[in-house]
């Protein structure tokens, strides 16, 4: 990118794409808020199937996403109101971009830790994969903290190209770990299929949310890298980055709500004949379904697997 290109950005490729990303982020924040409220109303304090850490995690995720939306609003307001008409407004990165990076990565590491805990529980408490997820997430957080510290002192976006290798390293690790989480969650959750339609449908719903987490976030990061490389004078990659924490949160809250629904259905709550979670047989009407009682046929520990 030439200096002239950096000094003459178009509105469509800068504030225009940021506004689109901001609008999508707001819409996803509305979805996340609805999921949070639904979770609290159905499984809030006093419910036997949800532990306090899970309630706290859902609340913390919502607070982090609220802070993220406030920071996005500040950035857009700074461009459109505070420095309206300033020809250099798109040249120097605002300090809030560094803060947005930090908040985004804190949100992402919390979601990954939630998945790591579930993998640990569902896989018979095997520590290897969760430890890999934790170590990779901490590495991604560390290098993003380094980039954020450098970004605060940048005079122009062009100067940030000197540190683009940090972004490449972070995004590459993010693609790998998110894809691995989606694959391994599908692997361990598929073991819980019972042949009972009402339970398998909920398990498929959980798998859908997990796959969406891996696919959508991986696709978002990949497209961000592509636009960062191919359109260096554009803010398309920033608009995409605005939406990533909301994608993580919406998919994870979907998994939490589906988990609790699975627990309720497995216990037969509100569904007529109870379905024993730790039994070797389930009777529905005049038919009995039998499977091996090896503690893998139903999500036996899901009542304890809440965050």
Descriptive account of the structure:
This protein has a two-stranded antiparallel sheet. Helix 2 (12-43) runs parallel beside helix 8 (236-266). Mean pLDDT is 77; it is low at 1-7 and 270-305. It is globular and about 65 Å long. The chain has eight helices and two strands; from the N terminus they run H-H-H-H-H-H-H-H-E-E. It has helices spanning 3-7, 12-43, 52-82, 95-122, 128-151, 164-189, 197-230, 236-266, and strands at residues 281-284, 287-290. It is mainly alpha-helical.
Write the layout of secondary structure elements.
Layout: H1 3-7, H2 12-43, H3 52-82, H4 95-122, H5 128-151, H6 164-189, H7 197-230, H8 236-266, E1 281-284, E2 287-290
Antiparallel strand pairs: 1-2
Succession of helices and strands: HHHHHHHHEE
Q: What is the count of helical runs?
A: 8
| Residue share in helix | 55-70%
The order of strands across the largest sheet is 1-2
Tell me the structural class.
mainly alpha
Termini separation comes to: 46 Å
Q: Whole-number radius of gyration?
A: 22 Å
As residue ranges, the low-confidence spans are 1-7, 270-305
Cα shape:
globular
Sheet-strand content, in percent, reads: under 5%
Number of strands: 2
Q: How would you state the average pLDDT, rounded?
A: 77
What's the multimeric state? single chain
Major β-sheet annotation = 2 strands, antiparallel
């Amino acid at each position: 990118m030439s200096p002239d290109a950096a000094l003459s950005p178009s509105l469509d490729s800068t504030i225009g794409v940021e506004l689109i990303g901001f609008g999508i982020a707001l819409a996803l924040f509305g979805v996340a808020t609805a999921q949070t409220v639904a979770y609290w109303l159905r499984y809030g304090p006093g419910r036997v199937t949800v532990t306090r850490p899970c309630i706290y995690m859902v609340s913390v995720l919502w607070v982090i996403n609220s802070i993220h939306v406030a920071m996005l609003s500040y950035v857009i307001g700074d461009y459109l109101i505070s420095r309206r008409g300033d020809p250099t407004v798109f040249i120097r990165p605002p300090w809030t971009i560094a803060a947005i990076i930090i908040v985004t990565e804190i949100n992402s590491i919390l979601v990954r830790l939630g998945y790591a805990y579930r993998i640990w529980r569902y896989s018979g408490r095997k520590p290897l994969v969760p430890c890999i997820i934790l170590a990779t997430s901490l590495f991604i957080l560390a290098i993003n903290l380094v980039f954020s510290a450098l970004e605060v002192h940048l005079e122009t976006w062009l100067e940030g190209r000197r540190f683009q290798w940090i972004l490449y390293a972070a995004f590459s690790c993010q693609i790998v770990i998110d894809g691995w989480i989606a694959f391994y969650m599908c692997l361990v959750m598929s073991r819980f299929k019972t042949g009972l339609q009402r339970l398998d449908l909920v398990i498929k719903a959980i798998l859908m949310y997990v796959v969406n987490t891996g696919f959508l976030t991986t696709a978002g990061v990949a497209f961000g890298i592509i636009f960062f490389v191919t359109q260096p004078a554009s803010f398309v990659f920033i608009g995409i980055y605005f939406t990533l924490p909301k994608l993580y949160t919406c998919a994870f809250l979907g998994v939490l709500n589906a988990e609790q629904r699975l627990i309720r259905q497995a216990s037969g709550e509100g569904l007529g004949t109870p379905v024993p979670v730790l039994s070797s047989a389930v009777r529905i009407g005049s038919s009995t379904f039998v499977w091996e009682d090896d503690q893998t046929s139903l999500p036996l520990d899901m009542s304890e697997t809440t965050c």
